[in-house]
Amino acid sequence: MKWWKTPQAAAVWTVLRVWLGIQWLEAGWHKVADGFDAGGFMQGAIAKAAGDHPAVQGWYAGFLENVALPNADIFSTLVAWGEVLVGVGLILGAATIPALIAAAFMNLNFLLAGTTSTNPILYTAAIILLFTGAGAYYWGIDRFAYPYIKTMMKGGHGIGKREAQTH
After folding, report:
1. Which of 27, 76, 99, 160 could form a disulfide with 89 if both were Cys (CB 3.0 to 4.6 A apart)?
2. pLDDT in tens, 46-80
3. Contact between 163 and 157 (Cβ < 8 Å)
């Protein structure tokens, strides 16, 4: 077993994963509970695409202006609930790899929109956890869920079920 997938190393990854999940849950919960409109954020990012040294690349500003801003309500909902679901998934260690991919993708988009804040730290934590693979969810629901799902996908009967008796 590789050192980063050992139970001891997984304890460190679990602390990092839960911390990352709390960051996402707190950020998303406020957006869901208080209402969130990403339109102003998008307009601010578009404005950062001007000048000699823009913080936002023109192609990304074009995406924001032509795709995201006209659909700001949908994007606002996706961001708010995406942050909550990523947070819950990471805290529980459930759907950990998809949650980490979603977290990294959201952080990347915030960075592309010219917002530094904690995004580089959160992005780096997600990437590190992605590289640990199964070590990221050794102490989580996925440790038990993935083998069960694999068994069910192969036509197995799952955990704890007996085969039917035929007479």
Report:
1. 99
2. 999 999 999 999 999 999 999 999 999 999 999 99
3. yes
